[in-house]
Specification:
Number of strands: 3
GO cellular component, one term: cytoplasm
Protein name: Guanosine nucleotide diphosphate dissociation inhibitor
GO molecular function, one term: Rab GDP-dissociation inhibitor activity
Helix content: 10-25%
Organism: Rosa chinensis
Radius of gyration: 20 Å
Strand order of the largest sheet: 1-2-3
Family: Belongs to the Rab GDI family.
Length: 131
Amino acid sequence: MKLYVESIARFQGGSPYIYPLYGLGELPQGFMQAFARLSAVYGGTYMLNKPERKVEFNEEGKVIGVTSEGETAKCTKVVCDPSYLPNKVRKVGKVARAIAIMSHPIPNTNDSHSVQVILPQKQLGHRSDMA
């Protein structure tokens, strides 16, 4: 309850809850917005719309900061698109997303206007339900 009340004070609108406006197809953007809000609650720092970003590493290869416009924000973790760190990323799978507009409801969904379909890993021979 305390975290909820503190979250309300951080954001306009009177509620810390986020819901994607256009269904689950907007989930990656909604996830990042939710992550940004949660990070702010815990004192996280963002560097948005900054040119010449460079992720700094120590001798052991661990991240120690991000530099932009001559300023370095010190940190121990960086969340970014894999294209920023191609030498540090290992490709382990693929993700397929789709928005399907259908002429009929999906069976057993009680005629819901929006549903999420997860194909079970065992049925597809995958290591995860999401890949």
